[in-house]
Specification:
Elements lengths: L17 E6 L4 H11 L8 E5 L6 H11 L6 E4 L4 H9 L11 E3 L5 E3 L4 H17 L13 E6 L17 E4 L1 H5 L3 H12 L16 H8 L2 H16 L1 H8 L4 E3 L23 H4 L8
Parallel strand pairs: 1-2, 1-6, 2-3, 6-7
Antiparallel strand pairs: 4-5, 4-8
Amino acid sequence: QKKGNVKTHATKVRVKMKLRILSLGAGVQSSALAMLIEQGKVPMVDAAIFADVGAEPREVIEWLDWLKTKISYPLFVVQDRNLKEDLELMASGKYKKIPIPIFTLNEHGKKGMNRRACTADYKIKPVTQKIRQLLGLAKGERRKNGTEVELLMGISTDEVQRMKTNQIKYFNNVYPLIDMGWNRAKCISWFQENYNKTPPRSACTFCPFHSNEEWKRVKSNKEEWDKVVALEKSFIENRELITKTTGMKDAMYLNRKCVPIDEIDFDEGKNKDQLDMFNNECEGMCGV
């Protein structure tokens, strides 16, 4: 997938000045919201948009394929850059940014964490680009007066801290699950009752915000786990090269213990040693 390309899995939407869009993460809450819309329990949208960062677990992509067969409104899958490929480029000295909030360890043993940019750059940006395209706006073109976008977010009552005011003035984030008083458990039970299925949790396989339980889930898929281990190993082995291109002098790890991920016992401490992805996620867009 080349930079700037848009992968589309639906018919085109007629250009409008007012749009109602579902931001689809293909996790529990946004999947429940997608089907509530389909059932007419939440007002219809013009389209759903899924940002493919190139690092979702296989079960999420398979789940997205299932959703496509169940909804009648357009679903667009978009990508600006591939996050995993950019991390591999970074490790080889060919990309100057550190795109994920990775844990760091300096020569004095002090731990840290670099800035979070992945949600904004790999999810919000391509979704915004697609919405502007649906509005008929060319790159750099100013919006017309009266242009409005309702952006439906799959955030539930147990994640109210993730509610955000959109930085784009003519975008209005709306939270139907909050309005309905639904929490994550209600979304799961409703999905089981209506479709006899449970949506997966949506997050990059190598996300540093994984809890120990999430790491155990990733580890249960040997193919995905081996790729995560290999990715982190490339950070460790290519530290000097990464320092030269990014300026990051500290060693980088995917877990806050700051030891190789394949050396960690994820049953120890019962999640006390890792951040909670939902409470610490920066933009309110991942994992929903």
